[in-house]
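lol ok so funny story. i was supposed to be doing the assay writeup but got distracted and ended up predicting the structure for this chain instead. priorities right. anyway since i did it might as well share w the group, maybe its usefull for someone
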Amino acid sequence: MRIGVDILEKVRFERIAAKDRWVHALFTERELEPINSYSPGRAAEYLAGRFSAKEAIAKVLGVGFMGKMKWRDIEVLRSAPSGKPYVLLHHFARTRAEELRVGKVEVSISHQPTVVVAFAVGERACGCGRHGQL
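and the output, tada:
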């Protein structure tokens, strides 16, 4: 098992969320779909949670975003109807998870008035083909 955690002050992230260019560099189209129905404040909070989750997941993978890893290599989506976040790994993130034998990454995101926190756990693949999915 591998773990990662990230905490982010919302006010710091609001500057990023205000720039459309940055938002599209950090998030996939599927991650951005829900924000169309949100108020600007709620949209920034939602994106801050996804940003924090990506940071926590990068820690699970033992890499940062300065090298081969791209922000959009990690996708944090929501399950319907519960809204529970789930993780899909692409490109370098998927390759790195396979190198580490991480079969599945789970993430939890929590919002407070001034901060967002995300906790991620990478589960080892058992090799049987029935457990874990990237």
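Residues 40-61 form the longest helix (22 residues). The helical segments are 10-17, 20-26, 29-32, 40-61, 91-100.
back to the writeup now i swear
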